[in-house]
Amino acid sequence: MVPPSIHLENLRSLPNKMDELLLLSRTNKDFSNSAALCFTESWLNDTIPDNALNLPGFQLFRADRVAESAGKSRGGGTCFYVNERWCTDVTALKKMCCPNLEAFIINCKPFYSPREFSSFILVSVYIPPQAHMRSALQHLDQITHTEQQHSDSVIIILGDLNKSFERLVLAYLKNITGPLLDPLQFAYRANRSVDDAVNMGLHFILQHLDKSGTYVRLLFVDFSSAFNTIIPTLLQTKLTQLSVPSSICQWITSFLTDRHQLVKLGKFTLYSHTTSTGAPQGCVLSPMLFSLYTNDCTSTNPSVKLLKIADHTTVICLIQDGDESAYRQEVEQLAAWCSLNNLELNMLKTVEMIVDFRRNTPALPPLTIMNSTVPTVESFRFLGTTISPDLKWDTHIDAIIKKTQQRLYFLRQLRKFNLPQELLTHFYSAVIESVLCTSITVWFGSATKSNIRRLQRTVRTAERITGAPLPTLQELYTSR
Known about the structure:
Number of strands: 18
Number of domains: 3
Protein name: Reverse transcriptase domain-containing protein
Oligomer: single chain
GO molecular function: 2-oxoglutarate-dependent dioxygenase activity; methyltransferase activity
Structural class: alpha+beta
Pfam family, one: RVT_1
InterPro entries: AlkB_hom8_N (IPR015095), DNA/RNA_pol_sf (IPR043502), Endo/exonu/phosph_ase_sf (IPR036691), RT_dom (IPR000477)
């Protein structure tokens, strides 16, 4: 008897994966003994016959994307491979295709099953990334009504539904907590971006340096494995304080606790562990949960600003007449807050920069955190923008030019292969122009004319290679 295990995978093109699937069916017992294989994003269409998708020992059932129903022809589609040693009596019950959800339902009557169950109903669900989540979940709710029509059957819904529900919870959390978030938290805020955080920081610095006898100390804080340190029970308390309903708080706590992880090599399980700390990497909710977790980490002194964007934290101290007491007190409070909230400062990557335009600059005492002296740097890449103590953009623009020159080589190679002008232009926009536009709203307005000319030469070189007119830096800046 074949064990009733099911293999689920998001393939992104079944035809391109057939060689790999054939190899797995011959060499991997877990795979070949699966009762069924469920694949989403099969990318099948009418031009691909079933005999091109033959997998020995399995029977194929497919539900290709319908362009008229889904709104687009490419991508999508779901399919099942049912193991012939497990079941040969298979009936396709329903196919559903719309812009927000694709589903395929089959009814399997296996050779062996518990007496109380007449069949196994397998439901494959694919929710596109751009889908409207509420509509998709409404369609999914309609599918679950199949259980009422087949009360003596086991219904198994297959698909990556966690991310879909995460997106729904994310939108809900943003709507509830938005007005209560720290105004200097820039992640997941409407009409705010990384560039806004950098511009805000520079605004604080320049406005303060207009006064006499002033300078600024910037502390760029780095956390060790920030997302892996969240304590779910502590997060639940903080969410409750932000007026998040208890049902959502409990769901998030359940989502973060008792997560099973293991390392498997061949037939050997090397390591198995259950964790209840941190947020899973790659999850839609993780950055938002960390932002809410650190929302109560704020400055109590108006001369010290704490800029936050997800796990990036920067302390900006506006110092007058050499009085650094507020700065050192806030840093001590930050270190104490981290200890209470299970966050660990990475002292190897935490650095400081001093911006001081005074003529006679005395030697400043170093900053010490937990008996470790924080090193001072001459430049730092702050949220994608390289900042120097003189607040000029030479270092940042040098880095941009170096990157674009490397990418121009690939553009020249593509021209040698006689690619159409349209494709060359698309490559330039995606690979080179995107580098030129990095934080352009931050540095363009105060960059020197010589630096602008250096960057513009890159654009003119790309124009000669592509043979097409390209937007100037001024046009790119204005369009932002």
